[in-house]
Amino acid sequence: MAEAPDAAAEVRAIGLPASALAGAVRALETLDAVRPAGALAQVRALEGDTLVDHAAGVESVRVFLHLTVYADTNEAARAAFDELRLALETEGRSAARVEPASAERVGRVMAELDWDPPGREDLVSYSDRIRLEVTPGRTTEEPLAELAAGPPPYDTLESYVRRVAARERIGQVDLSVSPAGVARGVNDHRFRIQESEETARHTLADIGGFLSALERGSPAARLTKLKIERSQHESDVHATRGWTFEAELSLRTRDDVEAFAAEPLAAPVGSTTAHR
Fold it and tell me: What does the mean pLDDT of the chain come to?
């Protein structure tokens, strides 16, 4: 008769969450590398989240790129869009990329890549959303000896996120936390990060610096959700400081899942009750 699986060994085999930031960086790098001749590509918004396939025991990153492609004719604009889509889908299947994304790579796609290239009035446009699933790449980091025993000290992590936000010129952010089971005895503690002010606006460089610093400063955490888009409170649609964001930072720990059964799904971090 087959032996029952070793629960402790199963927990040790669980690594960190796949990085939504790394998946987004790979998509933007591909967009920069594949520039269809005679066309301009504008990034209107970017979304990414980490997907967990519990049955297969694997994770991937889903990325949505909201693009507008400009060209001389409707046919040329659509053809350029399809060329970009095929290149992005090919990149998504590659497992040879290095992750997590370095600060230099994040800075290059957020500060140096032109998300809003100037066009001409005689060009026509084609707009749509490209959805791709990105296979996590190989990591150059030393693996954790084991997952930390949780739950984590929420007040310490709250201070960490707020400190990074202040240092990276983001300002005040609102935080809420919710645990989610990943595998037997393993939980993700997901910190949702939102702008405190509805009218807050940032440069892409500042947003990229903040997101990169969150992962770089905590080797046990990964960004598992992000959204970057134009602020509705900025009248100039081409303003450099006209972007807003949402993000989710996840910390994976060994936990007693039942300990969270009576917890609210998304309690504010500042008022999170103590866990047993």
Answer: 82
